[in-house]
Design goal:
alpha+beta; 2 domains; Umud Fragment, subunit A
């Protein structure tokens, strides 16, 4: 009687796989690695193909670009990113209603007009409100809880995509413009939610869903320097 042996191959992610994964999630390219680390395109190709691994200072620079922990990037062990102390699993949320075990609390701020000279970081640091989001949503969207903030929008400029009063959730890692994606941004002293498009010579187009009432705004390269992208909007909850 013949004994048939089956061989099972267990696929294990390597450093190169994790680098490519993060590039895809952040909408980055290999040239961005070269710019951030100073490594030649050939050296970056070796990283991406698994022929070599980033080490020392280059590993730190690469991890910063890819918004992940060096240990995770190199070995796959530990958490991918640090968890912000405000982003902890909650025992209670709004109105003292118990939160489920599969939810986290994240910083939440109402849409406000920014005073001249006040930075976005100051607003995030000072907020005391929290919003809850299901961990399944974060997993599906590929967004770590430590990268998420939430706010409420007002007005009808983004109907029918985002309704007036909806609570939106923002991936603060994604500040590089991908044409046609919706971003939370600050421009002209206002927090806004709009489509963004790249224009030649580093200009930016700001577009509303309701383009009849809110025409496109084309920012020159100089004007675009004053545009702050908070992050990409990846989820919303309609107002009750």
């Amino acid at each position: 009687m013949k004994v048939i042996q089956s061989r099972f191959i267990i696929l294990r992610m390597e450093t190169s796989d994790r680098i490519r994964q993060r590039l895809k999630e952040l909408g980055l390219k290999s040239v961005d690695i070269s710019k951030a680390t100073g490594i030649s395109s050939g050296g970056v190709s070796h990283w991406l193909n698994g022929n070599s691994k980033p080490r020392g200072g280059n590993l730190i620079k690469l991890s910063k670009l890819l918004m992940c922990q060096p240990e995770w990037l190199l070995t796959g062990e530990g958490a991918m990113d640090d968890v912000h102390p405000d982003l902890k699993r909650a025992e209670a949320y709004e109105n003292n209603t118990p939160a489920a075990s599969n939810e986290v609390l994240i910083p939440f701020f109402e849409e406000v007009q920014l005073a001249a000279g006040v930075g976005l970081a100051s607003i995030f640091d000072s907020t005391t409100e929290k919003a809850r989001i299901n961990l399944d949503v974060l997993t599906t969207q590929g967004v770590p809880s430590s990268a998420v903030v939430s706010c409420r929008v007002s007005g009808n400029s983004m109907e029918s995509k985002i309704v007036d009063g909806a609570k939106i959730f923002i991936d603060t890692r994604t500040t590089r413009i991908i044409d046609g994606k919706i971003y939370a941004l600050e421009y002209g002293g206002l927090l806004r939610v709009k489509y963004l498009f790249r224009l030649p010579f580093s200009g930016v187009r700001i577009r509303s869903e309701n383009s009849e009432d809110y025409p496109d705004e084309d920012l020159s390269p100089e004007e675009a320097k004053h545009l702050r992208i908070i992050g990409r909007v990846f989820w919303q909850e309609a107002a009750l």
